[in-house]
Amino acid sequence: MSSIHEEINKIRIIDGHEHIDPVEIRKKNKVDFFGLLHYLESDLITAGMKRGILSKNSLLSDEEKAEQFLNFYQKTKNTTYARTLNTAVQDLYGMEEWSVNSILALNEKVIAATNDDQWYPKVLKEKSGIDLAITLAYTTNVDFSLFRPVMFLDYAYKLRTIKDIQVIERHSGVNVYTFQNYLHAVDALLNKFVSEGMIATKLGHAYWRTLKSTKPTFYEAEKCFNRLLSSFLDEPMSQQEAIVLQDYLIHHIIQGSIKNDLPIQIHTGHHETSVSGNGNIITNSKVSDLIPLLLAYPEAKFVLLHCGIPYHQEYLNIVKNYPNVFADFTWVYILSPTIAKQILHQMIEMVPQTKIFGFGGDYNFIEGTYAHQKLARKIVGDVLVEKVQDRMLTESEAVEFAQRIFRDNLLEFYKLKV
Q1: Which value, in Å, is the radius of gyration of the alpha carbons in the chain?
Q2: How far is 403 from 418, CA to CA, in rounded Å?
Q3: Cα(168)–Cα(163) distance, integer angstroms
Q4: What is the mean pLDDT of the chain?
Q5: Tell me, what's the pLDDT at 275?
Q6: Quick check: 247 and 215 in contact, CB under 8 A?
Q7: Do the Cβ atoms of 361 and 368 come closer than 8 Å?
Q8: Considering the entire predicted model, what is its pTM?
Q9: What single string gives the DSSP state of each residue in 61-100?
Q10: pLDDT by residue (tens digit) across 165-195?
Q11: Residue 275: how many other CB atoms lie within 10 Å
């Protein structure tokens, strides 16, 4: 191990994006081994496994689930998702070989960990070296000694039926009789989340529509909204009809984020098979489609997640040229270590180091985050060693760069205190 790798392993990470549930929710959901699959489930599905057969609602016994898992694991064990799960269960649970009996034994260990109040701090702080993780768990009620919340705002602009409006009405506590009332409700919801500790907003609409947004007038959006509000039979509006209203609300949420000094995290690039709601239409996630929004709000702070893969070349150009856009390596290392190295090499050469956020595990469970940070530290170390060998950086500059992207940049940008 090089001295650069050794220094990187000492860094206390600030984790820029996760989907880790509070421990109470993990307990309530009785998470077992099959609940830890997350990204690997996508590879199992694309290898031919039927969706849902390993879920809690499955009619299969644990033994039958283990047999199904083993069958498809053999087809996917080459992928980084599979290797990452393997690292997690080997390091944290002592898993040595894959068999039905060993999976059943592992299952009992995971259930015990789920019910262990010290498991979260042990894995995140002691094993992973993570001081804080920004998590999107659909609640602001998180353990602030471990997490800071970010909230999905998609449900405030993904309006297709009157029920969608009523959800915002209930959550905000604002009665909605007009479009202006609805805008006040969205503002109230943002203010509520901020008061509860939210440190950023998240827009994930690339999963269900294009990132491209027009700039409709209030009148155009109000006309669409009124059609929804008057559909008492809960008649759905088509996406094509609703997009004008959605676009207007995207602008409104960005403006509200600016007013509250909130960074705006946006999903770009790759879609996850197991959760995608649009059939994995990857062109919906094209990074350059965001350019009109980026130009419209120079005072905003846009964090473009996932390096835009597979649109990472245009992503690099955008992050380099726009002062209001920040790069984020969330999810990237486990998508492809090879692509991660390529992007990082280029980013070091192109993008100011203060604009780069180096790690977000993007996992539903802490075991995945542990394995992901281990891989991320190695990849960043490998790239920096190469940069030092090529005399593009000195060793001290390489260590400073790692300290910045793994910790200091996020502390400063999100105004965190640890």
Answers
A1: 22
A2: 15
A3: 9
A4: 96
A5: 72
A6: yes
A7: yes
A8: 0.97
A9: -HHHHHHHHHHHHHHHTTSHHHHHHHHHHHHHH---S--H
A10: 999 999 999 999 999 999 999 999 999 999 9
A11: 13
Instruction: Tell me the mean pLDDT in the region 234-251.
Output: 94
Mean pLDDT for the stretch of residues 280-288: 93
In the DSSP assignment, the letter for residue 55 is: S
Which 3 state secondary structure label does DSSP give 346?
helix
State what percent of residues in the chain have pLDDT above 90. 96
Site of tokens 């640890």:
418
Helix/strand number for the chain, H first, E second = 19, 8
Cis peptide before 22 (omega within 30 of 0): no
Q: What is the DSSP string of 168-225?
A: HHHHHT---SSHHHHHHHHHHHHHHHHHTT--EEEE-GGGTS-S------HHHHHHHH
Distance CA 152, CA 137 (A): 9
Query: At a CB cut-off of 8 Å and minimum separation 6, what does 201 contact?
Result: 150, 151, 153, 190, 253, 257, 262, 263, 264, 265
Residues 88 and 368: beta-carbon distance below 8 Å? yes
Q: What six digits make up the tokens of 67? A: 């047999």
Task: Please give the span between the terminal C-alpha atoms of the chain, in angstroms, as a whole number.
Answer: 29
What one-character DSSP code corresponds to residue 408?
I
Please check the confidence at residue 278 and state whether its pLDDT lies above 60. Answer: no
Residue given tokens 């199992």 in the structure block: 44
Contact 308, 335 (CB under 8 A): no
